[in-house]
């Protein structure tokens, strides 16, 4: 019987609470005997829940920072023999991943280690003493993992350049096309050109740059920007918007309403900045699945998913002017919007469709 232990430094609610990550567990657990999730508790205590073949084991968080899991993650040594675990899956090469790799050696188990942020590649540059230490730990985990999950061809290339080659498997993020549908078919802009971006209001998203670029364009064109997600930078972004009616900051909305917003928009942007934890935002794939033309930055695992001039536009991060120029280019060219949008949908449906990706994901995990 396959018994998987999924190691995550994130904090989760009980299993009776529905959330996106739970959907991932359900997919990965589909053909397993038992699927155990080992993570941090929101209530900062030991908890255990069961639903079907999924068991959720939560341990005290010890502060808000995920890096505390670098130490507390070693508690998984007690769970592996107790539940007779056969396969390990870690979402990070450090927080939980380091303990997982050591456990894989101690108990003779295969482990898949995933990369969900570009900050690990910052460590490889070794600019500080801390970076050198973290670089050593990351590479130790990746080189000793049975499999290393890469999110794109660009991420695989970066791993290869660091000498991590033989155990890399490419398994992309995915989009549920049954949920994010139907795609756009009309690329004519209305009286107001509507731009949208979805994601937490955190530094890595670069939303201050998006606001500045749109405010600059609003001097020449009727444009509006909708930022949907909410988070720690809400007040700073509101201050950046300066009360201008062209900027809409929306903290939360139902998924059905979000899909309606996406379909009614003319353009999706994701001006992410490097080395702050971005990898391959799922929201880009959801926009592509809706047939939206995309402008995003040339960082992390994004290149190769978004192909410049084919299914989107890639710009360098941190430049208000470059973002404004790219938006203006699409604002003025309906044919280009159609070309990028239809190609984006075609790639999303052929490469990143939910069921197709999870078949690949499960096979790689179970076959270790």
Give the uncertain stretches in residue-range form: none
Instruction: Give the integer mean of the pLDDT values.
Output: 95
Number of helices: 14
Strand order of the largest sheet: 3-4-2-1-5-6-7-8
Sheet of most strands? 8 strands, mixed
Which CATH-level-2 architecture of the largest domain?
3-Layer(aba) Sandwich
- Which geometry do the CA atoms define? globular
Classify the oligomer.
single chain
Named CATH topology of the largest domain: Rossmann fold
State the total count of DSSP E strands.
14
Which value, in Å, is the CA radius of gyration?
Answer: 21 Å
Q: What structural class do helix, strand and pairing data support?
A: alpha/beta
- CATH homologous superfamily assignment of the largest domain: Glycogen Phosphorylase B
Order of helices and strands: EHEEEHHEHEHHEHEEHEHEHEHEEHHH
Distance between the termini: 14 Å
* DSSP helix fraction: 25-40%
CATH class of the largest domain: Alpha Beta
What does the model show?
An 8-stranded mixed β-sheet has the order 3-4-2-1-5-6-7-8, with helices on both faces. The chain has a 6-stranded parallel β-sheet with strand order 11-10-9-12-13-14, sandwiched between helices. By secondary structure, it is α/β, with parallel strands linked by helices. The model has no long low-confidence stretch (mean pLDDT about 95). It has 2 domains: about 180 residues, Rossmann fold, CATH 3.40.50; about 160 residues, Rossmann fold (3-Layer(aba) Sandwich). The two termini are about 15 Å apart. The chain is built from 14 helices and 14 strands. Helix 3 crosses helix 4.
């Amino acid at each position: 019987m396959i018994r998987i232990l999924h190691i995550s430094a994130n904090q989760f609610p009980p299993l009776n609470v529905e959330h996106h990550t739970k959907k991932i567990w359900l997919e990965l657990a589909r053909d397993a005997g038992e699927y155990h999730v080992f993570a941090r508790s929101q209530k900062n205590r030991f908890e255990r829940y069961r639903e079907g073949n999924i068991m959720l084991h939560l341990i005290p968080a010890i502060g808000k920072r995920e890096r505390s899991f670098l130490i507390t993650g070693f508690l998984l040594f007690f769970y592996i023999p107790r539940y007779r675990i056969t396969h390990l899956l870690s979402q990070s090469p450090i927080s939980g991943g380091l303990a997982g790799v050591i456990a894989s050696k101690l108990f003779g188990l295969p482990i898949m280690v995933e990369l969900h942020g570009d900050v690990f590649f910052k460590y490889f540059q070794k600019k500080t003493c801390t970076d050198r230490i973290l670089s050593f730990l990351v590479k130790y985990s990746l080189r000793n993992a049975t499999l290393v999950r890469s999110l794109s061809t660009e991420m695989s290339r970066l791993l290869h350049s660091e000498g991590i080659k033989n155990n890399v498997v490419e398994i992309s993020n995915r989009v549920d096309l049954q949920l994010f549908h139907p795609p756009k078919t009309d690329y004519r802009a209305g009286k107001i050109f509507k731009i949208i971006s979805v994601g937490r209001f955190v530094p890595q998203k670069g939303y201050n740059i998006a606001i500045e670029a749109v405010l600059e364009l609003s001097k020449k064109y009727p444009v509006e920007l909708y930022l949907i997600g909410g988070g720690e930078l809400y007040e700073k972004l509101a201050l950046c918007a300066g009360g201008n009616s062209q900027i809409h900051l929306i903290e939360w909305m139902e998924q059905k309403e979000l899909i309606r917003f996406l379909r009614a928009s003319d353009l999706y942007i994701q001006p992410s900045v490097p080395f702050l934890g971005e990898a391959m935002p799922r929201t880009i794939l959801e926009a592509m699945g809706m047939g939206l033309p995309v402008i995003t930055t040339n960082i992390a695992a994004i290149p190769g998913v978004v192909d410049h001039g084919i299914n989107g536009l890639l710009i360098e991060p941190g430049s208000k002017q470059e973002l404004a120029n790219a938006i203006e280019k699409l604002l003025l060219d309906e044919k280009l919007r159609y070309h990028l949008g239809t190609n984006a949908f075609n790639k999303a449906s052929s490469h990143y469709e939910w069921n197709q990706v999870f078949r690949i994901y499960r096979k790689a995990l179970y076959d270790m």
